[in-house]
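Contributing new complexes? Match this layout with FE2/S2 (inorganic) cluster.
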Amino acid sequence: MLNVLDSAVPVECWSCSIGQSTTTLFCPHCSKIQPPSGGNYFTVFSLTPHLNIDLAALETEFHRLSRKLHPDRFARATDQEKEWSLADTALLNDAYRTLKEPLRRTEYLLKLEGSEIGEEFAGKDKANPSRVPADLLEEVFELNMQLDEMRMARKVGEEDPALHASLTEAKNKFEAMVNDVDQDLRKEWTNWDQSDQTVRQSSQNKMVSLLDRRRYLSNLLRDVTETLGA
Amino acid sequence: MAYSDKVIDHYNNPRNVGQLDKASTEVGTGLVGAPECGDVMRLQIRVNPETQVIEEAKFKTFGCGSAIASSSLATEWIKGKTVSDALEIKNTDIVKELSLPPVKIHCSVLAEDAIRAAIGDWKKKNGVAETADATAAAH
Ligand code: FES
Ligand SMILES: [Zn+2]
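Output block (do not edit by hand):
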């Protein structure tokens, strides 16, 4: 079941002036298309922001709305409505792509709820710009050096079995670390969804650090996998 | 994404790649990462104890082209500068010089962070207190 957003101020439908909605793509009263609104990706699906999403329901709703926005349905509509249907389609696609993918969804919700992540906040944390413990950074850097060494040796047709073994070991360890992060993230999803504002704030901070950590881990994993696989 | 000519130049011919002796008291090491993407960078300086001039700078970056170019440029800029002048370098100067697009701001931030971290490490090793200047510049 979809939750209905209750907090934002409703806007009157341009066509019937009766239906009121902040964010839905169609008027709840007369079903006419509405311009892309000041809502967010969750409200496009008539959801409140939350993290444990019913993916099957999301997909069904996506297909239903996509069909309703199909150009064939606007063949005889006004130019304005045609234009809105295209803009709404773009919004719907972005919203679906973001919400169905767990990490994108988490990042999106965190930004929406005011967590300071993303390019706009690059370099704002002067006390610990890397935002992960120093020993993790050192380990990541050290493994990158070993990968470099391995690539270099390969260029001259050499392969050091000991290096290969230690990188494989590192790969397994880092995979386990990523799994741990994902498990912790899921715990925080539930925690956030079920809690009030004060708990949410600390849960968000935890998720921000988990995502930070995850980026370093998965970056390295990508390169290790690529190099070992080659 | 299209890189500027200057980024491509630094990327193809990175200046000052390498490492300095971490254990030396004249050497400061900064190891930093960009949480925005997970890339890591190490920047090292060798400071003349008499003049406080950075005589040598080396880097090693595991990251995108912009991060490599930013760190390469950073080592060029800080070489020959005193430690306190080097702290004046802002990531925005790097953005301007390399014409980095908005999504690559954090790559330049990484280079600025690396300079600060290297200098911080050198200061700590040599018992130099953080100056009011450096603290103010951190805002
Ligand atoms: S993309 Fe992360 S340092 Fe450039
Ligand atoms: Zn209506």
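Reviewers usually confirm one structural detail per submission. For this one: The pocket of zinc ion (ligand 2) is lined by residues A 13, 15-16, 18-19, 27, 29-30, 32 (CB under 6 Å).
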